Amino acid sequence: MVFLFPKLLLPVPFHRSKSQSSPKLNPQQFPLFAEKNLNLLFSMANAWKRDKPFRLLSPKLLFLLFSSTLLLLFLFFSFLTPRPSNPNPNFLTLNTNLLSTSIPPFDCIKSPQAHPVVASVVEGVRYPFLYSLSDFGKLPDKPHKNIVRLLKGKAFRKPDISVTIQEILEEAKGEGTNGFVVDVGANVGMASFAAAAMGFRVLAFEPVFENLQKICEGIYFNRVADLVTLFEAAASDGIGNITIHKLVGRLDNSAVSATGAKLAFKSNEEVAFKVRTVPLDEVIPTSERVLLLKIDVQGWEYHVLKGATKLLSRKGSQAPYLIYEEDERLLHASNSSTKEIRDFLHSVGYHDCTQHGTDAHCTKKD
Fold first, then answer.
1. 143-151 vs 59-80: helix axis angle to the nearest 10?
2. What keywords are annotated for this sequence in UniProt (predicted)?
3. Would the N or C end of the chain have less CB density within 10 A of its end CB?
């Protein structure tokens, strides 16, 4: 017996009584069944294709294309950005034995990555580099806006301090890269990586853990682990501990003063945490040259400078080029002032200071 279901001629078994005899099928009929069934299947498939609406891009395909685009852009920028090369290979590895053992360098290998991140290439500088700022976690920068900027070929952030750092170091590069750049208040490493991209060794001080994670990611992106040494500490005028205030949801604007932390951004969400303090004179050996000292610590600049008295007292060109933030509001919140800083700098021989926005640039002459 043959059932028609659905529109297919199939030889199928059926229930029968004992009185019924078994159906007898001629073996020559099977090719006919097969041919009819195949024709019906093709007809059904063609009808299904005609009825199904045409979709150029499905959600899954769009997701795959978007993910592939991001990956290709990341690889493109990774290969586009030159790896820093030091013309003095004998000085590539930082001799941490020369540094104070009271505060060991921060170990990026043991630092967990907070969230998946997107690397951004810094444009507008002679020596480009990558840095980590946007992510898909709880940090402040909205990732969807940054991704749109990335797809448009725009940088996440302007170079800012990076251009200044590279312009200053470009003049010193004629004498080689035998010397340190000290970055106090490193934030996410914009100044540190600007120097490391030129082959200079960097000592970076940063107390905020989320920023330390970002610097570690940048060290990996730029392949500068042999050039950048990172310290989880606040530079100050004494060894000990201090309370830092940071705004929730921001990578910047952490300060010793709670008032100072809120000056630039209005926010009631504030977290206080303790961090180690160390004077720069305790970390930097007198035998090592420091080419540039950059300080941006939201009003704590005077205490950092006091802790670097020996370094700043070096003669003539052996003293570092100094850049520090000079914001009277922030200084006042930390019980210091512009005058107090300038008087101290004069006492150690810095008589030539010029203002560049909220930053002061100071040098010594031979």
1. 70
2. Membrane, Transmembrane, Transmembrane helix
3. C
Number of other CB atoms surrounding residue 48 within 10 Å: 9
Mapping DSSP to helix (H, G, I), strand (E, B) and coil, where does residue 271 land? strand
Round to whole Å and give the CA distance between 332 and 353. 20
In this structure, whether the domain defined by 96-363 belongs to CATH 3.40.640.10 is answered with: no
Domain residue extents for the chain = 96-363
DSSP string, 276-291: EEE-HHHHS-TTS-EE
Closest CA to 283 of 23, 96, 142: 96
DSSP 18: T
- Inter-residue contact 125 to 164 (CB < 8 Å): no
Mention every residue, 6+ apart, whose C-beta is less than 8 A from residue 304. Answer: 184, 235, 236, 237, 280, 295, 297, 324
For residue 192, give the nearest of 223, 137, 156, 230 by alpha carbon. 230
Question: In this predicted structure, which of 87-96, 176-185, 186-195, 324-333 has the lowest mean pLDDT?
Answer: 87-96
- CB-based contact 190:122 (threshold 8 Å): yes
Residue 315's alpha-carbon distances to 147, 170, 175, 366, in angstroms, are 48, 22, 18, 7
- Rounded CA gap, 129 and 198, in Å? 10
Q: Are strands 180-184 and 201-205 parallel, antiparallel or unpaired?
A: parallel
Work out the end-to-end distance of the chain between its first and last CA atoms, rounded to an integer number of angstroms.
112
